[in-house]
Amino acid sequence: MKKVARIIAGGGLLFGLIGLLLQFSLTIPAAMAAGRNFWLSVLFYFSFFTILSNIAAVLTHAGQLLPAQALYYFHRRSTAGAITTLMMVVGIVYHFILAPLWSPKGLFLVCDVILHYVTPLLMAAWWLVSANGKARFKTLLWWLVPPVVYVVCVYIRWAFVHEVPYPFLDPALPRQELIRGIVGIIVLFVITGPVVVISDKVVGWLKRQYS
After folding, report:
1. What is the residue-wise DSSP string for the chain?
2. Alpha-carbon distance 120 to 99, whole Å?
3. Rounded to an integer, what distance in angstroms lies between the CA atom of residue 164 and that of residue 43?
4. For the segment 66-94, what is each residue's pLDDT rounded down to a tens digit?
5. What's the alpha-carbon Rg for the chain, to the nearest Å?
6. Which of 53, 140, 182, 186 has the highest CB neighbour number within 10 Å of its CB?
């Protein structure tokens, strides 16, 4: 199973890098054509939760392929669980909320499929194949820190450039709708995190029973 986990991690690393680099090559020219300068375009690229989560996933996969001390933080099971949760939320939110709002074509569609479907599925597959039962419920509160920090940064950025990366975070929305959107995302994290931990414990237990 360790060999399979490494193969999946290699696939996650490869597809993650392809998706991120391709998205960067498409986003920067498009953002500059929309009136942003180069550095604001780069900031725009990194403002998306999908991009940040996929970067974290790439580092996690790399952490499994390199010696443990090379990327120790991303080699840890607790970190991997948090990032698996992030990637699951990325896929769910995109599929059910964002995908119906636009119809990307060409390479933009390729990026969307890679970063919202392929990499989350590879992350989930790696998490299950590498399950060892060591994920802990007590770490779940820490797993909520990245999305909370992200939302805070979104609104700090909005104060300067008056734009948000996702429509459900737009302060121009009616207050109840805005609160409902933010609370809904938090609830999704609160549900997904325990599912990730439970899956590790269940699959880890099955491995020990049938090994």
Report:
1. -HHHHHHHHHHHHHHHHHHHHHHHHHHHHHHHHTT--HHHHHHHHTT-HHHHHHHHHHHHHHHHHS-TTTTHHHHSHHHHHHHHHHHHHHHHHIIIIIGGG----HHHHHHHHIIIIIHHHHHHHHHHHT--S---GGGHHHHTHHHHHHHHHHHHHHHHH---SSGGG-TTS-HHHHHHHHHHHHHHHHHHHHHHHHHHHHHHHHHHHH-
2. 15
3. 12
4. 887 778 788 888 999 999 999 999 999 99
5. 18
6. 53
Assigned token pair, 204? 């880890």
CB 111 within 8 A of CB 22: yes
How does pLDDT run across 120-129, given as a tens digit for each residue? 999 999 999 9
Residue 155: exposure state from Cβ atoms within 10 A (0-12, 13-18, ≥19): exposed
